[in-house]
Amino acid sequence: MAAAFAAVLAAAPANASFPLASIGIDPGLIIINGVCGALVASTLACWIVGRRSSPGKPCSCDRVDDHDLARRDLLAAINRGGADAIGVVSAILPVLVISLALVRLTESTGALSAFTCAAQPLLQLLGASQQDVLFLLTKCLAGSSAAVTLLLSAHKELSLPPEKIIHGSAFLLNPLDLPGLSILVASVPALRSVAGVAVLSALTGILVRTALLAWL
User: Fold this and answer.
1) pTM listed for this prediction
2) How many CA atoms, within 13 angstroms, populate the side-chain half-sphere of residue 70?
């Protein structure tokens, strides 16, 4: 479970990758790069969990009773799925509203400009600009889709070089953000127990993705 969770967090989501084709960027390259990062993340998560678990310890996963499963009909399955979907939406909606409000508040109050001025030496060392910080902040608080929307808007105004977008796609295009984690944990509450391992492994996979894109 930890390996699958880490792989999802490190991979590049298709819904955020394909819109980049409109500005001449091959989404296949980004998706393949995401698969490489996902493989690294899942392998690392599996290794960490394997070292922590005791040999011969039985699995404590919840199992559905076969007899109870056989009695469920199609209508019951549809009702259960609809109820679960409503529960997930109810759980993540406050997080999404707060995250979008934080992004707008950061832009309108000038907090982003104040932060970039204070961190100017560090940003120069990393070769980052205020615009890069805005992209990363939007991605962390509002998700990859919001970051891509902002990226496409900035490309229309400033004609960003495709190489810069590709090199930054590893950090911008992945579900490792506040909305992504909220959706996944709300959908599968059992993921909370392995969230730490999955996030650490996903960060490693994202760094590998960044290194691969820089090497291209």
Assistant:
1) 0.75
2) 3
